[in-house]
């Protein structure tokens, strides 16, 4: 029997940048300590805005391909057209600019993705699982025709007997997207595998979760935690202590064992099948 545990591996990028439309004349003129400038968006930089900045050497601007207005929580400041940086002729007058180029955000995402994939592979090695990756990005997960097809084709190819995925009613957008895509694939593939949902920080992220099944994890809990902590970039110590370990104890009480996990099995009425 094949057992398929499905959850996206995501990446998270944090940026401290400012959305600007125009930098007026002489706005930063004479800032002798300014050495690096990062500009988000496509502002107009007026004459002499950065004149007489002798230490200003590097100027960076973001490329268009990073823009994703759909995720307002993480990218509200990215809702811009970033085709070019418009600078007046004397915008950097008497400033020693050596580099004026785009930040390769795609390369940054690729690098972060490699880190997350390495962590996922390490976790799978602990549990004896085989990792598979789709093309979703943390904070910018999508539900569209292409994403539905991608999920469906992967599950059709792998032919699992059981799939465990995120509960779709979840305050974390990425979790909800994952659950919805898997549910759609399950229906379109003729309900050819058993579908279960797991919980994540119930009450904070997962909502309206009423378990149908419990699994005693008392003897496998240490291995589970070892796999979780392979995801070093997620800083899981606090999350585990504040949320997941108490959940394990509570679910254990519910099913009369020391530690347990809870799941919801997706079963539809015969009239809907």
Helical run tally: 6
| Average pLDDT level | 78
The stretches of 5 or more residues where confidence is low (pLDDT under 50) are: 8-18, 63-85
CATH fold label of the largest domain: Rossmann fold
Number of strands: 11
Sheet-strand content, in percent, reads: 15-25%
Q: Name the helicity range.
A: 25-40%
Q: What is the class of the largest domain in the CATH system?
A: Alpha Beta
Task: Give the CATH H-level superfamily of the largest domain.
Answer: LmbE-like
Oligomeric category = single chain
Spatial sequence of strands, sheet with the most strands: 1-8-9-11-10
The gyration radius over C-alpha positions equals 24 Å
From N to C, what is the helix and strand string?
Answer: EEEEEHEEHHEHEEHHE
CATH architecture of the largest domain: 3-Layer(aba) Sandwich
Q: How would you sum up the global shape?
A: elongated
Structural class: alpha/beta
Our measurement of the CA-to-CA distance between the termini, rounded to an integer number of angstroms, reads 24 Å
Domain unit count? 2
Largest sheet data: 5 strands, mixed
Task: Please explain how this structure is put together.
- The protein is of the alpha/beta class.
- The protein has 2 domains: 84 residues, Rossmann fold (3-Layer(aba) Sandwich), CATH 3.40.50; 132 residues, Rossmann fold.
- The chain contains 6 helices and 11 strands.
- A 5-stranded mixed beta sheet has the order 1-8-9-11-10, with helices on one face. A 3-stranded parallel beta sheet has the order 2-4-6, with no helix packed on it. Strands 3-5-7 form a 3-stranded parallel beta sheet, with no helix packed on it.
- Strand 8, helix 4 and strand 9 form a beta-alpha-beta unit.
- Helix 2 packs antiparallel against helix 5 and helix 3 packs across helix 4.
- The two termini are 24 Å apart.
- 22% of the residues are buried.
- About 12% of the residues have low confidence.
